[in-house]
From TrEMBL:
Biological processes, Gene Ontology terms: lipopolysaccharide biosynthetic process
Keywords on record: Transferase
UniProt organism field: Sporofaciens musculi
Record-given protein name: Glycosyltransferase
GO molecular function: glycosyltransferase activity
Pfam name, any one: Glycos_transf_1
Amino acid sequence: MSKYLVLGVSFNWEKRKGLDVFIELEKRLGLDYKIVLVGADENLAYKIPDRIVKIPRTADQEELARLYSAANVFVNPTREDNFPTVNIEALACGTPVITFHTGGSAEMLDTGSGYCVETDDYNELVDRIVHICENGVFSEEACIKRARQFDRYTKFKEYVDLYDSLLGRETG
């Protein structure tokens, strides 16, 4: 029986989103690790090893929150992205994130919420997954605190204040 749950979520699993990375992780991680992929449709099922749990795409926020919360680590091996909100969703559920150093992924994490690794560095990725799972290095509270820094209302106000300052107006 697996001790650790490694979660991946995408609504378009392909190489760009790191499907091949999870297939490689399945080979490298031992039986103590269970990989769960959300968003794997029937067209991809045959490409994904049987040992990886495949959950169909869902828009049910409560179901997604339960999955994020159950995971020991959320892995987002995206090779192309601008600001993947799945990272924030995982953090908001108290789950640390490991992602590739691409797009806006790195900006979402701090030293208390996860790791960025170089794209396709499988050795470091496996080391970080094992480190998080076996040592519990990130607290649920720290992850949630980091996610709160991306609250849409706070960010909206920051943008308005920035625009006002650029226009020479007083900010409120």
